[in-house]
């Protein structure tokens, strides 16, 4: 059986896979024009290089392992038609992303940019006044694995956490829950608003002018999910009006962010070039999900494979 990797992994990781699965022919660091596309039963990919033309050539394909949480670039409708199961690595980003978001929140509340600016001027000024997280409220759009870990860290600082999902169903490390329908009503109370939502038909343009206008003029907004959550011009106008007070953006409608984007020069915006999920342990954690799934697949226990993607929901 052929298992085709469309990206490079470390040599010791290749050796480990070959040692644990001697019956499998692993093909590493290949491209979609490789003839092995036609013989491979499993393809491991970051997801952006799989389109319908690849699926048409992959006559033996039964399973696609996407080494990413987002699968919005995948032709999920076609994989469903061909009965190709798709799994992802949902959950592996929670540690680096939650740590990064907490760092940005603390930097904003403790006025660290002002501290750094003063140092660059060799200026001793004790008038900088930060604020505490203790007793504040944070709304987390998408309280799944990443949102839950973020909630856990915030709760350790005494923050009251509110999760927001489609149904309002309870999620881990959330003190209270609201549904998408109750979002507008909840926003005026929030000191921090965080989105880690995936890109789906339900989440595209979920936030409009009325949502930003409802935020406090001291609120910090962070988007670490997907860039189509709102129209960027709407957010730009909202920030110019002071609601929210500031934003930390890791994702954008167009990436790389164009050089002429207003975000680059806005003093109340931090541009993060989609790096919050990056970690030296990314592939290692991906393989920790892939290997048990591969064992289940080989044993015919496909019902036990984790992180199955629902092609209709898109996650």
From TrEMBL:
D-isomer specific 2-hydroxyacid dehydrogenase NAD-binding domain location, by residue?
Answer: 102-276
Oxidoreductase is among the record's keywords: yes
- Key word NAD present in the record? yes
Q: Which GO terms describe its molecular function?
A: NAD binding; oxidoreductase activity, acting on the CH-OH group of donors, NAD or NADP as acceptor
Keywords of this entry: NAD, Oxidoreductase
InterPro entries recorded for this chain? Answer: D-isomer_2_OHA_DH_cat_dom, D-isomer_DH_NAD-bd, NAD(P)-bd_dom_sf
Per its UniProt record, what CDD domains does this chain match? 2-Hacid_dh_1 (cd05300)
Entry's family note? Belongs to the D-isomer specific 2-hydroxyacid dehydrogenase family.
What is the name of this protein?
A: D-2-hydroxyacid dehydrogenase
Report the source organism.
Answer: Bhargavaea beijingensis
Q: What is the lineage of its organism?
A: Bacteria, Bacillati, Bacillota, Bacilli, Bacillales
């Amino acid at each position: 059986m052929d298992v085709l990797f469309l990206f490079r992994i470390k040599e010791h990781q290749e050796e480990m896979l070959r040692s644990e699965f001697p019956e499998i022919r692993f093909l590493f660091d290949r491209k979609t024009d490789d003839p092995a596309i036609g013989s491979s039963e499993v393809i491991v990919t970051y997801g952006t290089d799989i389109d319908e033309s690849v699926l048409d050539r992959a006559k033996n394909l039964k399973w696609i392992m996407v080494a990413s949480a987002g699968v919005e670039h995948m032709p999920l409708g076609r994989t469903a038609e061909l009965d190709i199961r798709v799994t992802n690595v949902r959950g592996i980003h929670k540690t680096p992303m939650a740590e990064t978001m907490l760092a940005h929140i603390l930097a904003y509340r403790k006025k660290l940019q002002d501290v750094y600016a003063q140092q660059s001027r060799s200026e001793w000024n004790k008038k900088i006044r930060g604020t505490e997280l203790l007793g504040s409220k944070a709304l987390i759009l998408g309280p799944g694995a990443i949102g839950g870990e973020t909630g856990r860290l915030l709760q350790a600082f005494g923050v009251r956490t509110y999760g927001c999902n489609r149904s309002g169903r309870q999620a881990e490390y959330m003190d209270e829950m609201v549904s998408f329908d109750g979002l507008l009503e909840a926003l005026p109370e929030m000191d921090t608003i965080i989105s880690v939502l995936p890109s789906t038909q339900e989440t595209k343009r979920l936030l409009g002018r009325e949502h930003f206008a409802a935020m406090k003029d001291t609120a910090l907004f962070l988007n670490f999910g997907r860039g189509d959550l709102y129209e960027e011009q709407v957010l730009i106008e909202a920030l110019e009006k002071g609601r929210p007070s500031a934003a930390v953006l890791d994702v954008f409608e167009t990436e790389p962010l164009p050089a002429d984007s207003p975000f680059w020069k806005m003093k109340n915006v931090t541009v993060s070039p989609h790096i919050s999920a990056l970690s030296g342990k990314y592939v290692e954690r991906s393989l920790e999900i892939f290997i048990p799934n591969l064992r289940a697949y080989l044993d015919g226990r496909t019902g036990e494979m984790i992180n199955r993607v629902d092609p209709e929901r898109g996650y």
